[in-house]
Design a protein that fits this description.
The complex is a heterodimer of chains A (532) and B (131).
Chain A: H1 11-33, E1 56-60, H2 64-75, E2 79-83, E3 96-97, E4 101-103, E5 109-111, E6 119-120, E7 127-128, H3 132-140, E8 145-148, E9 156-158, E10 168-169, H4 170-190, H5 200-213, H6 226-232, H7 255-261, E11 279-282, H8 287-296, E12 301-302, E13 306-312, E14 317-322, E15 331-335, E16 337-340, H9 344-347, E17 351-352, H10 356-363, E18 370-377, H11 381-384, E19 391-395, E20 401-404, E21 415-423, H12 424-431, H13 435-446, H14 453-456, E22 457-464, H15 480-491, E23 497-499, H16 511-530
Parallel strand pairs in A: 1-2, 1-16, 2-12, 9-19, 13-17, 16-23
Antiparallel strand pairs in A: 3-6, 4-5, 7-11, 8-11, 9-10, 13-14, 14-15, 18-21, 18-22, 19-20
Helix pairs in contact in A: 2-8, 2-16, 4-5, 10-15
Chain B: H1 3-15, H2 17-43, E1 50-51, E2 55-56, H3 69-77, H4 91-101, H5 115-121, H6 127-130
Antiparallel strand pairs in B: 1-2
The chains are: A alpha/beta (532), B mainly alpha (131).
Chain lengths: 532, 131
């Protein structure tokens, strides 16, 4: 077989196309068989057997990691106290609802004017089904969950550089891409060009699978017809009565146009394990989990405590905190051990006496820029006009994506969209704007996808994570090199001090990282206490 | 910002010292642009920083800026939670930002950081330049 097929495609190019199409699934299976991809390590609540003999643990931070640790250590018989900077529990587990007031670093204050029941989650907003830990705590705390639509075939993929800037439906781009690629592969299979790679017996199955997966006709062509229209949609869908006869979709997008548009980049956006169905969200906002933890641990958490110093000696740990409003009124509290869940961005500025390697690890991790913008509209036009019920549209505009509410479908009245979700340079640029400017820009950009924006916009809030007073960034951005150099040093117990949080996990930026990190930390701490 | 302009600045630096002063002029507008679109996200529009559970240091009236290498290395390497901007900003943008903060916000340091000096300390060719 010659390397160059008569279609003008080299074998290498063909394999690359297969790889691009099958990419996520294939590499995931390969990695899973090598043990490189883990589902959550969560195996149920930790079994902290044995008597801690009255040992006390001071926990810094009432986010998910701190509160998981507090609940389990309390249940195991420890004396537990939690110090929290904010006046609420949850940390980055947080929902902003109508009536809430948020002041960011620099003093800009936003008064959220959303209608009752409407919210945005500035931090985490999804609970993947395979994040067993956070889901288990939500269940134990009685937090109701509902499905989160990650992948909506009727949502848009959008490029300012393609299709005249007109957003395309995911189902059309996905179907056309798979159809064309399947047809190509069918052709070379039929031409016997895959002889070296596919056995004669497999060839028939391969063709059959391509026909089904690619929505090809009986002659293995991706053409207008029932098969393609069933996937991408009809020009006129079938109905009832006299005028019932469907008209097939004729305007299939050409392969070259799809490839040039770059919209194929969005096809696999929801395919990785943390985005696969079924994903959940708490009813009423992600903050419901943190709030439930806060109620459960009401006796243990002290709010508005800004930690400025953590020193340990042979007998215990001494933590000094001040009033966050004044930086005054320093007070000291002591315990046998300290579990610190304060983000490294803040912890690297706190006076610690720990071993130099651990301090170096705490100082080594930069924090990611991220921003979320919630926009309230006078009506749910995305549902009423465009039949988009939940899910996400993706765009190459700076806003990155538009997330539709996955709850209260068909309700009259106002609705809130996630009008922008950015990382990297765009997030930095938006963070550098005043909040009202961020909202204004998100409305301007979003209007290129939904023309109803200017008419229907009501109000909005915008949270840039580098301006959040208690995190100074969104999450720890580890690299492989940084992990090799510092990760193990960060996770060690240094005499009476240890850390937990998403920053001490391999699931950065996810609540599951905080949960599994906390459980690992307290399990090791408990072992040390019992054997002391 | 484009490569042509970048090379122009480098050429000016190499040709004569008077050209350095000339090159510093368009720098101010560029420096202000970088500061207002990126830096002020944390260091704030008045460069006075901010205090929460942790703090962002003030760049205004900051004696640490006396040595131009100090802010340059901060931007190139990052520091603690502050990320490195070596891959996000072009060398002349880094130089412009440094020159801007060293001559504004109550700072009066006349010596100019050149693009060549930034390039010399970049860990490798930045992604920006490889484009």
């Amino acid at each position: 077989m010659s390397d160059k097929a008569s279609t003008g495609i080299s074998r290498r190019e063909l394999l690359m196309m297969i790889g691009a199409m099958a990419g996520s699934a294939t590499s995931y299976n390969a990695m899973a068989s090598m043990g490189l991809v883990e589902e959550s390590r969560f195996n149920g609540p930790p079994k902290l057997d044995g008597d801690p003999k009255g040992a006390s643990v001071l926990i810094l931070g009432a986010g998910i990691a701190g509160m998981v640790a507090a609940m389990e250590l309390r249940n195991a018989g420890y004396k537990v106290k939690v110090l929290e900077y904010n006046s609420r529990a949850g940390g980055r587990n947080w929902s902003i609802r109508g009536g809430d007031v948020y002041t960011e670093l620099g003093g800009a204050t936003q008064h959220c004017e959303f209608d009752k029941g409407l919210y945005i989650n500035p931090g985490p907003w999804r609970l993947p089904y395979n994040h067993h830990g956070i889901l288990d705590y939500a269940r134990r705390l009685g937090v109701r969950v509902e499905p989160f639509q990650q992948l909506n075939f009727n949502a848009y993929v959008h490029s300012t550089q393609a299709f005249g800037g007109k957003p395309q439906r995911y189902r059309e781009i996905q179907t056309d891409y798979l159809g064309h690629v399947s047809e190509l592969l069918s052709k070379v299979t039929q031409q016997g060009k895959l002889n070296e790679m596919v056995s004669k017996e497999d060839e028939a199955s391969l063709l059959d699978s391509l026909r089904r997966i690619g929505a090809l006709d009986r002659r293995y062509r991706y053409v207008p017809g029932r098969e393609s229209s069933n996937r991408r949609g009809f020009q006129k869908p079938p109905g009832g009565g006299l005028d019932a006869r469907p008209i097939y979709s004729k305007d299939l997008t050409g392969l070259s146009e799809i490839l040039k548009s770059g919209l194929w980049r969005s096809i696999g956006a929801g395919w990785s394990t943390e985005f696969q169905s079924t994903i959940f969200e708490p009813v009423g906002g992600m903050g419901k989990i943190g709030e439930a933890f806060g109620r459960e641990l009401a006796d243990l958490i002290e709010y508005e405590r800004k930690v400025v110093k953590v020193h340990q000696n042979r007998k215990g740990v001494e933590v000094t905190y001040v009033d966050p409003k004044t930086d005054g009124n320093p007070r000291t509290v002591t315990a046998d051990y300290c579990l610190c869940t304060i983000p490294l961005s803040v912890l690297s500025q706190i006076d610690l006496n720990i071993n130099p390697k651990m301090q170096a690890a705490i100082n080594a991790v930069p924090y990611a820029a991220a921003i979320k913008i919630g926009l309230q509209f006078k009506r749910r036009f995305w549902e009423q006009d465009e039949h988009i019920y939940g899910g996400i549209s993706y765009t190459d505009l700076p806003i990155g994506s538009i997330g539709y509410p996955n709850t209260d479908y068909f309700q009259p009245g106002k609705g809130v969209l996630l009008g922008g979700y950015m990382f990297g340079p765009n997030a930095m640029k938006f963070t550098a704007m005043p909040p009202e400017e961020r909202v204004k820009k998100a409305v301007e950009y979003g209007a290129q996808i939904h023309a109803q924006y200017p008419q229907e916009f009501d109000n909005g809030v915008a949270v840039g994570w580098h301006r959040v007073p208690w995190t100074l960034g969104c999450f720890g951005t580890w690299t492989d090199e940084l992990r090799a150099q510092h990760y193990d040093d960060l996770c060690q117990i240094d005499h009476r001090f240890l850390v937990a949080g998403e920053h001490a996990s391999y699931i950065p930026g996810w609540q599951e990282g905080a949960v599994t990190s906390a459980i690992d930390a307290i399990t090791r701490l408990h072992h040390k206490v019992i054997n002391a | 910002m484009n490569k042509m302009k970048m090379q122009g600045v480098v050429a000016a630096v190499l040709l004569s010292t008077s050209a350095v002063a000339m090159a510093a002029e368009p720098d101010a507008a560029e420096g202000k642009k970088v500061y207002t679109t990126i830096c002020q996200g944390c260091h704030m529009p008045d460069a006075k920083g901010a205090v929460g559970a942790g703090r962002y240091p003030a760049l205004a009236n900051n004696p640490k800026l006396a040595a131009k290498q100090y802010p340059m290395m901060m931007i190139v390497n990052g520091s603690r939670a502050m990320p490195s901007f070596a891959r996000m900003l072009a060398p002349d943008e880094i130089a412009a930002a440094v020159n801007y903060v060293r001559t504004h916000f109550g700072n009066h340091y006349p010596d100019v950081l050149t693009t060549a000096e930034v390039k010399a300390v970049l860990p490798q060719k930045s992604d920006y330049e490889r484009h």
